[in-house]
Write a structure and sequence with these properties.
transmembrane helix; about 425 residues; about 80% helix; transmembrane; mainly alpha; 18 helices
Length: about 425
């Protein structure tokens, strides 16, 4: 679509037709193209038109609305499969929870972005491979490889969703950053939907109890399950048709939490020294340490996705730079701890997965930190920071494939 916009910029009639074909995609691609066209009469007109903030909520086209309603119902039915067909919940949900939402969102973006046939075939093949493989794994109690495979399968399906989101566009890095921003927006809007749903649940159960109907069990097993499954789909639809809903909230969250996380992390590292506890002699502490690392990484990635698109604030970049440096220290401590455990007690599936994940994160952090330093030194543009993350995302995808599909075979389903 980017090429079409550029080619027909001075043809108002044709450009209007392209816009009405897919308004959301048109705005996204035009915003990426606008810095090159800024100053032209037609380009400035369309920029003002597309960025005019309307108070009205857009419900998209009728076809989109029907698709979302059907997808939400399908997601709810998938979530209810154990009760419908008397499937063991302990077997079904750990292995298949990702298939409740991710494939439907992948279909949505494949349809919206008019994905090419080979890429559609790849997406379908990847999802089906994951579905068949995870459900054929032996039902071994306390299997580390099974747990690792189930967890990394979620990341694998998330990567396939990102593949569909990126589409056939040439500007892969921009689209990958857009995917990270979409995830941040989705978390915000889905949380609001769930809060509203929780309030409605309490009111509904309370009203029915007043007239003698105790619907708690029925409501939780049916309405709540269907609602939880549908929330991300509805949230995705709202963020794509109404980007202004959370367009200003996400940057505020990024700016607010970056310094708070930095302060927390520094205080936490100091507290570790005084507490006498460390990841070198405590396995549970090491697991929590790595969970903290992943959470901080998510904050950094989300913040970088925001500053790459919306701001040139050097204060924000300084905060992210210091946060990245501190996170590298945290990562290095965790990495040295897992290497020590491997040298003393040998390799296990969990240790191998943590080691590989920490190495990948450390490399990515070093790349991001280097680019942040170059921006502060005025040797590079802030967009390069985003590229350092975007270009690295496929490597995480390869790692999810290794842990999900190869680890169970290498370690004999232990």
């Amino acid at each position: 679509m980017k090429d079409k916009i550029f080619a027909h910029l001075n043809d108002p009639g044709q450009l209007e037709k392209i816009y009405r074909t897919n308004k959301v995609s048109f705005k996204r691609e035009f915003d990426l193209l606008y810095p090159e066209l800024k100053g032209g009469t037609a380009a400035d007109f369309w920029h003002e038109r597309l960025n005019f903030e309307s108070d009205r909520i857009s419900w998209g086209t009728g076809r989109e609305l029907v698709f979302v309603i059907i997808a939400a119902l399908i997601a709810g039915l998938i979530a209810k499969l154990p009760s419908i067909f008397a499937i063991n919940e302990d077997f079904f949900y750990p292995r298949n929870v990702g298939f409740v939402v991710f494939p439907l969102l992948t279909v949505y973006f494949a349809w919206k972005n008019k994905l090419s046939s080979p890429k559609i075939a790849f997406s379908i093949g990847a999802v089906l491979t994951g579905l068949i493989f995870i459900n054929l794994l032996p039902d071994v109690k306390k299997s580390d490889t099974l747990i690792l495979s189930c967890v990394h399968l979620l990341l694998f399906l998330w990567s396939v969703l990102g593949f569909a989101f990126t589409g056939d566009q040439k500007n892969k890095d921009e689209r990958r950053l857009g995917f990270l921003k979409y995830n941040g927006d989705l978390v915000v809007i889905t949380t609001l939907i769930l809060i509203a749903g929780g309030i409605m649940t309490g009111i509904t159960i309370g009203l029915f109890s007043l007239i003698g109907f105790h619907i708690e069990r029925f409501y939780s097993q049916n309405i709540v399950v269907m609602g939880l499954a549908a929330a991300p789909i509805i949230g995705t639809y709202l963020t794509q048709t109404n980007p202004q809903l959370v367009g200003k909230v996400s940057p505020v969250i990024a700016k607010l939490f970056s310094p708070l996380v930095l302060i927390m992390l520094v205080v936490y590292l100091i507290a570790i020294v005084y507490s006498g506890k460390n990841p070198y002699n405590n396995r549970d502490f090491l697991m929590i340490f790595n969970a903290l690392l992943i959470g901080v990484m998510a904050i950094i990635f989300f913040s970088v996705a925001e500053i790459s698109r919306s701001t040139k604030s050097y204060m924000q970049i300084w905060i992210l730079f210091v946060l990245s440096v501190v996170t590298i220290i945290v990562n290095s401590v965790a990495l040295s701890a897992i290497i020590l455990r491997i040298s003393e007690w040998g390799i296990t599936p969990n240790r191998a997965a943590v080691l590989g994940g920490n190495v990948l994160i450390l490399i990515n952090l070093l790349l991001v930190t280097t680019q942040l330093f170059k921006v502060l030194s005025k040797k590079a543009d802030v967009i390069n920071v985003g590229k350092a993350i975007a270009s690295y995302l496929p490597i995480y995808f390869v790692w999810t494939i290794i842990v999900t599909f190869i680890f169970p075979l290498i370690f004999g389903f232990k």
